[in-house]
Amino acid sequence: MSAATADRSVFTWKDFSRFVQVAPVERGWLVLWGHYREGGRSRELAGQRTYVDLGGVRRRVADSVFELTKRPELVAETTAQFDRASITERPRQPLPDPL
Fold first, then answer.
1. 57 φ, ψ (degrees, to nearest 5)
2. Which residue did the predictor score with more confidence, 94 or 72?
3. Distance separating alpha carbons of residues 97 and 70, to the nearest angstrom
4. Local structure of 32: helix, strand or coil
5. Which of 17, 18, 44, 92 is deepest in the core (most CB within 10 A)?
6. Hey, how many other C-beta atoms are within 10 angstroms of the C-beta on 31?
7. Which of 72, 93, 81, 89 is nearest to 20 (CA)?
8. Residue 91 — φ and ψ, nearest 5°?
9. CA 32 from chain center: how many Å?
10. How many CB atoms lie within 10 A of CB 86?
11. Which SS3 state, helix, strand or coil, does residue 20 take?
12. Over the stretch 50-87, which tens digit does the pLDDT of each residue have?
């Protein structure tokens, strides 16, 4: 993810050295999750996925928090925070012509 995309994040969850970040991209939403290393100076990605709708993003945020913490109570807390973030659905972009 470029620095410009990181600056456009619409949702970020952090818990000690773990993070989940959501940012808009051309055809949907990019979700990144992983761990901060070296006191936050670098990030180690555990995964990344792109979704076209917020339902998929919400599920990935929840799954990522559980993957990182194994704590259902943090999943519930994070999904509530995600719901309160008032993120608006992005208009669907047509797919490019095949090569």
1. -65, -45
2. 72
3. 42
4. strand
5. 18
6. 23
7. 81
8. -65, 140
9. 5
10. 6
11. strand
12. 999 999 999 999 999 999 999 999 999 999 999 999 99
